[in-house]
Amino acid sequence: MKIAILSRNKNLYSTRRLVEACEQRGHDAMVVDVLRSYMNIASSKPEVHFKGENLPSVDAVIPRIGASVTFYGTAVLRQFEMMGAFPLCESVAISRSRDKLRSLQLMARKGIGMPNTGFAHNPDDIGDLIKMVGGAPLVIKLLEGTQGIGVVLAETKKAAESVIEAFMGLKANILVQEYIKEAGGADIRCLVIGDKVVAAMKRQAQAGEFRSNLHRGGSATLIKITPTERATAIKAAKVMGLSVAGVDILRSERGPLVMEVNSSPGLEGIENATGKDVAGMIIDYIEKNAKPHKTRTKGKG
Length: 301
Ligand code: ADP
Hints:
Blueprint: E1 2-6, H1 13-24, E2 28-32, E3 37-38, E4 49-50, E5 53-54, E6 60-63, H2 70-82, E7 86-87, H3 91-98, H4 100-109, E8 117-118, H5 126-132, E9 138-142, E10 151-154, H6 157-169, E11 174-178, E12 186-193, E13 196-204, E14 219-222, H7 227-240, E15 244-252, E16 255-262, H8 268-274, H9 278-289
Parallel strand pairs: 1-2, 1-6, 6-7
Antiparallel strand pairs: 3-4, 4-5, 8-11, 9-10, 9-11, 12-13, 12-15, 13-14, 15-16
Helix pairs in contact: 1-9, 2-3
């Protein structure tokens, strides 16, 4: 098969591993920087151009689209979908998963457990908003944040009010969330492929920190997850419409609570912590499922 990997940099661990896994299986892998891709969307024949050349049509596309290039990246992915390529994750599902609030609303609708979460626009409503999610301590999150940046723990009601006021004053979109203290600065990253959790790791925040992101100094170890955690992760990925996803779960007294579903999960942490060939499993999934024109983004033939 001809497989395009949409990635800004071919030297990134995940990109390298996916190329390797393609080659090991005899596929032809091509790394395409989305920001150097361009297209004539009015053309009757959908095409993608790249650095002056018309890209050959491909059987499958693996989107590795960073949060900062979601808008442009999903447009390029859509173009590949219109050309009939099988996307590992569909453009609509990626756009959906990048909106934290929309994702939580979708998951809540399907009964997936999550921390109590509130959202408000007007500073006059802060008092009631805090009460609504159960009072301090609270976690306040910038909707546009990633890798733990813009996630703040407010220990008291006063601190929560000040932080929320400050963010609102900056016109930033935030959500306010119950703090799951019993998670003990740890979360679980479940790597879902299709309808299976193929690998899971526990990320533990460094001392004095509640955010377990590896980018914030957290450490990753192999963990055995419970059947409920497994079922929750699979359901969360399914609700988001993602065939590959990194589902982040907090262990709470009332069971697994989903924090986030990531559509371009990094492979380095999870492969190192679990010793599993996740990249290989992704390519195996493509081999089993790729068929032309299988997305909802229909082309003109
Ligand atoms: P990002 O998308 O920037 O990684 P997250 O929402 O995943 O932001 O939060 C970063 C980290 O902060 C999580 O991995 C988790 O360890 C911790 N965290 C986030 N929300 C909560 C919460 N409600 N209760 C306890 N810990 C939390």
